Amino acid sequence: MREDKGKGRTEVGKVSARRDQKKMVRFADFVKDSKAFFKEIGDLTLMSEQEPMQLLMEGIEASSEDDEHQTIACTLDDSSRNFWSSKGSPDNTTSEYLIYKMVQPICVVTRVEVVPYKARYQRGMPIYAPRSVAVSVGFHQEAENMHYVSEEFPVENSNVTHTFNIKPTLVVGGFLRLDLRGRYQRQPGDNLFYTVLESVKCFGLPIGAFLNKPHVTAPLLSLASTFGAPFHLWSTSSTFSPDSLEGDISRALAARRNTAMVANGLAELVAQGRWKQALRVVTGFDLTSHLRSQERLTWMFENAWGDGE
Prior knowledge:
- It contains six helices and 13 strands.
- With 309 residues, it is an alpha+beta fold.
- Strands 1, 3, 5, 8, 9 and 13 form a six-stranded antiparallel β-sheet that branches. A five-stranded antiparallel β-sheet has the order 2-4-10-6-7, with no helix packed on it.
- Helix 4 runs antiparallel to helix 5 and helix 5 runs antiparallel to helix 6.
- The N terminus is likely disordered.
């Protein structure tokens, strides 16, 4: 954060004001009807479990990047060949951080997933996981202004999906920060420790997906406004309207509904033993990654091979 000249002093002043404001805010003060609120929270909990949405929109800051091809953006592209890498360090206790902007200024976060990178092109195929991860969420990207900070989740040095569950705590914000603490692996070439991630995902629900839950959305909008959430960063117009949030997310909602319908159809085909037809459905549509995962495709290919259909 800049602290030089007038602009720097103004930014520091804003940060201090938000920090003081955070200490005084009680979310319960924004809830007008507790019974209706908890009923709608129950509906959202079920919705987030049955149809979670991927919330990360873009990577906006990394504490370090090893080169221009190993940036934070590489953690979002679903390719196992691309990755973000920190700079090397002789100290295995060194920490890094990654900051992401979510799809809307108010998102309910339920879980975060990270996949450490396995360097198959290096001798011994080393894996470069952090030793632990802490998750922060807030309406501003500065660490000191994120109102939620998780416990430290331990991470094994393995090239698998590590899931960090945030629920049942109600965690909302527009920015996600991951603090990656400690390192396991030295790189064979320079003998320095690195942290390298193949993938980062965050799941939950953007507020545009549940604007029909007014007893939840009204308190969340009030909370975000109290914290001075920068709604303009998600808006193309000069004025912010909550109704625009539903329109912004409509395409993703339509895709989610389509995926649910296709998933139900696939389940019926599998139950009938019609593996080849099910496989044609999976490979013929642009579906979400969990329906086209490598594990699912392998399983379906193996069964379709013996299918006489």
